[in-house]
User: Fold this.
Amino acid sequence: MAEQRRNPDGVQEPARPAQPPGKGTEAEGKAAEDPGRLWAEVVATARRTVADGLVVGTSGNVSARLDNLVLVTPTGVPYDRLTPDDLTGVDLTGRQVLGALAPTSELPMHLAVYRTTDARAVVHTHAVHATAVSTLVPELPPVHYMTCALGGPVRVAPYAAYGTDELAGHMLRALEGRSGCLLRNHGTLTYGATLDQAYDRTAQLEWMCRVWLTASSVPGLTPTLLTQAQLDEAGERLKGYGQRR
Assistant:
C-alpha cells in the first residue's frame, strides 16, 4: 500500500510504495528522482534558513536541480505558506515549465551556477554577519580551517542590482574554484551536491564571518590568520573527514 509522509516541516510528500527489504539503495535513488519529493526538500531547506536566522521574511532563495529541471522557491511568498501544490520549476534557459507562481527574482544567479558547475542545489541568504563582512573586505580573511570546505578564502562579488545578469556574472567570477561566495552589500550564495551540503556551507560561511567580526572587534588586537600552507594541510585532512559508506 502506498504511504503518505510528512517531513519535519509539515510538507506532505507524494505517496510512494513501500519497498521490500534489500531494496533501500534502489528506492532512495528513485525517490531522489521524484520532483514532488525534491520540492518538499527545497521547501524544508528554505524554512530552515528562516528558523536559523539566515534570512528574514522572504529574502533569500533555494533551488535544486533534477536533470534539466530546476525547482526553485517562488518570489515574494513566505516559506511557511508553501505547499506541495506550489511546486515551481524552470528549465535551464529560465522558461517556466512547472507551477503557477513566478520563480525567485534571483533566478539568473541560480541558473548561472547550474550551467557552469556540477551543482545539484543552491542556497542564497541574507545572513547578517556574512552581509556585514561583504561591506568591509574583498575576501573573508582565513580565520578558520573550514575555509577549505568552500575551496579556499571566500571572495566578495562586486555589487550589482539584485536579479540581474550583471550580478550573476560577478558571482560566477567570485565562485571560481570555490563552492561559495559573498555578494557585496547583499548576502551569500553557496552550492553543493545536495541541499544539505549547500545549506551546511551557507551556515559554515555565516559562522566564519561571525568569528572574524568578533575577533576584529577587540580593541588593540588583530586576529591571526592561517597561512596558505596551513590551509593546504587542513584541506587534505578534510578530504578524509567523516564516515565511510
